[in-house]
Write a structure and sequence with these properties.
two-stranded parallel sheet; mainly alpha; 144 residues; 5 helices; 44% helix
Amino acid sequence: MGRIRLQVALDCSAYSLETFILTNVEPGTTIATDSWESYNFIEKAHCAHEKSNQGRCKANQSLYGVHLVTSLIKRLISSTFQGRFEPKYLQNYLDEFVFRFNRRKSKSIGKKFMRMVQQVVVSTKINYSEIKWDLDPISEYYAT
């Protein structure tokens, strides 16, 4: 398995899937999917499309990578976060998972560090005023 990309989808419409694929997949790439109708636009996106009928395949025979990544994410949510996480941060959790997954075979710690620095530089900036802290207990402590 190679590199992955994950994005939270608002729905499973052809429009949402097409937006993701056009943004993240290079033309000429072969895309393997199940035979769901919302993927019918893929041929128009200048990509090869391999459809598999999941009902006729043996367990774990088709789309192995999709099933593997899905099970790893389920494990992350159920064990690491114990099912407790804010849905508004789901994309951040997926981004971290993708970062770790795509670098799982990297032998150079220096390259990993440089990639993290690059990600920090291009990430969304948060101002101090945007950080919300509950300072009431602290201010009460210092007031006495």
